[in-house]
């Protein structure tokens, strides 16, 4: 039986994390859940522990890249075969976890991304975000030589090889996008699966229209720099 | 500005840009910290290449010559960078303090665990 770890990075998601964990426990059979509490100032950690998840309480806020990497380091250390990352805000349908793992288990890919573009979604992100996603994914697809439709999606599944690669080296700033480039240059196979996204259960998204554009520009710059680096094949 | 000075400034700021980019490429310098340096290099180069830009600054600030303008601009950038460093160092100090405290708390927790096992 493969060991599967569900990684949930969370920052001040006390209102949502409980429901996300309940959904995993009710609707799936995965029981190895690790919540990465990225220096939350609310009761995220307590709620998560109460729902039965293991929690990594980071001593201060490190940002999404470092938080997720902590999860991969955990998976690497405790010998998990697959790691699935989902968001703590409840926008990722847990029923898709199985679909994301399938290409890994049948060894057709090393990283599987849940794409909001490929799935039919009753909930569309706002127009600026959608444009941002489209521009970015077109750019990344050209670089990688393969069509990636949703480069900023946090809903991903990785196999053991990718877990170890990420544990060693994971970008801090724009992890979702940069990690795709990293993996591609290391020769890993990336695949996508369509997913449905739901509305955030509670709280506000921290992403505004202006931030989407600013983010896009910064990511493109970071990616261009990344391209100048030598490939690290392992 | 005197041609020799322009060429020298151009070469130096170009080399600065290359050096910064190389440091980032080799992962010795994080991208986010390189942005200010790159801005400095680009602005200085722009001032040297397009005297109009230096003249504009001269006009607003009353600085006497284009050469002085480039010098003052460099100093301004350096001051901004230094303030940036101070802010970063403050942040790092705080994080460091938290880590040290967590470490001590953990050590205590572990040693307690050991003694209750006996």
Describe the fold and architecture.
The complex is a heterodimer of chains A (234) and B (118). Chain A contains 8 helices and 7 strands; from the N terminus they run βαβαβαβαβαβααβα. Chain A is of the alpha/beta class. In chain A, strands 3-2-1-4-6-5-7 form a 7-stranded mixed β-sheet, with helices on both faces. In chain A, strand 2, helix 2 and strand 3 form a beta-alpha-beta unit. The longest helix of chain A has 20 residues, at 209-228. The two termini of chain A are 27 Å apart. In chain A, 42% of the residues are buried. The mean pLDDT of chain A is 86. The N and C termini of chain B lie far apart (81 Å). By secondary structure, chain B is mainly alpha-helical. The radius of gyration of chain B is 23 Å and the shape is elongated. Helix content of chain B is 89%, strand content 0%. The chains are: A alpha/beta (234), B mainly alpha (118). Chains A and B meet through helix 8 of A and helix 1 and helix 4 of B.
Count of separate DSSP helical elements of chain A: 8
* Largest β sheet strand count, sense and barrel closure of chain B: none
Biggest sheet details of chain A: 7 strands, mixed
Average predicted confidence as pLDDT of chain B: 88
> Which structural class do you get from the secondary structure elements of chain A?
alpha/beta
Compute the separation of the termini of chain B in Å.
Answer: 81 Å
Low-confidence parts of chain B, pLDDT < 50 over ≥5 residues? none
Give the helices and strands of chain B as they follow along the chain.
Answer: HHHH
Q: Helicity of chain B, in percent? A: over 70%
Q: Tell me which protein chains meet in the greatest interface and how many residues each side has.
A: A-B, 9 and 13 residues
- Say what oligomer this is: heterodimer
Proportion of beta-strand residues of chain A:
5-15%
H-E string of chain A: EHEHEHEHEHEHHEH
């Amino acid at each position: 039986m493969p060991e599967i770890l569900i990684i949930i990075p969370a920052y001040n998601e006390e209102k949502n994390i409980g429901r996300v964990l309940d959904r995993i426990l009710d609707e799936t059979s995965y029981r190895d859940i690790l919540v990465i509490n990225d220096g939350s100032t609310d009761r995220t950690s307590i709620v998560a522990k109460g729902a039965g998840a293991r929690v990594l309480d980071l001593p201060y806020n490190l940002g999404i890249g470092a938080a997720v990497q902590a999860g991969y380091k955990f998976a690497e250390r405790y010998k998990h075969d697959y790691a699935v990352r989902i968001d703590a805000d409840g926008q990722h349908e847990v029923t898709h976890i199985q679909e994301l793992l399938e290409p890994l288990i049948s060894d057709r890919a090393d990283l599987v991304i849940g794409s909001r573009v490929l799935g039919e979604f009753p909930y569309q992100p706002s127009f600026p975000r959608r444009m941002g996603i489209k521009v970015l994914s077109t750019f990344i697809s050209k670089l990688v030589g393969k069509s990636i439709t949703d480069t900023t999606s946090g809903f991903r599944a990785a196999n053991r090889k990718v877990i170890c690669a990420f544990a060693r080296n994971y970008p801090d700033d724009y992890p979702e996008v940069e990690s795709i480039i990293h993996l591609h240059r290391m020769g890993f196979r990336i695949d996508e699966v369509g997913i449905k996204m739901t509305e955030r259960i509670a709280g506000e998204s921290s992403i505004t229209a202006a931030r989407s554009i600013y983010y896009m520009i910064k990511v493109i710059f970071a990616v261009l720099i990344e391209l100048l680096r030598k490939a690290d094949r392992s | 500005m005197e041609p020799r000075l322009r060429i020298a400034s151009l070469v130096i700021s170009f080399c600065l840009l290359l050096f910064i980019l190389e440091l980032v490429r080799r992962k010795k310098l994080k991208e986010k910290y390189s942005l200010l340096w790159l801005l400095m290099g680009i602005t200085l180069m722009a001032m040297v290449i397009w005297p109009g830009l230096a003249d504009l600054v001269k006009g607003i600030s009353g600085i006497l010559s284009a050469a002085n303008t480039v010098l003052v601009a460099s100093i301004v950038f350096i001051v901004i960078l230094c303030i940036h460093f101070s802010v970063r160092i403050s942040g790092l100090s705080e994080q460091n303090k938290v880590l040290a405290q967590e470490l001590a708390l953990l050590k205590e927790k572990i040693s307690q665990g050991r003694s209750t096992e006996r």
